[in-house]
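I'll show an entry:

:::
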Amino acid sequence: MKLLHVTIQTDKFEEELDFYQNIVGLIIITDMRPLGRNMVFLADAKGDTEIEIIDNPEANDAGNQNLSIGFRTEDVQKKFEDLKAQGLEISPMIRPVPNVAFFFVKDPAGVTVQFM
């Protein structure tokens, strides 16, 4: 069994799309906007697990605060410094054991995003 996608419904569709493209670095795999539906699927590459973002003006993002998504990055310290320089509110770097480091940031819809 393979995880296909994680769905985020939000009333902040454009901000959410911008976050996953420009902060996380994902690309649009499937774009339903030309068909009249504000819904996109993003991933590193076709065939990878995707993030599905659905525009829902009634979402109020209440459930998103209990969702967490983790991403591996090639250089977690550089990612930490880059996001801090961009003015994003990020957690301190956490180093629970040697050779493991990560930090958290909230996306515009309130989802906790972990970078390792």
Q: What stands out?
A: The mean pLDDT is 93. The chain has two helices and seven strands. The two ends are 24 Å apart (CA to CA).
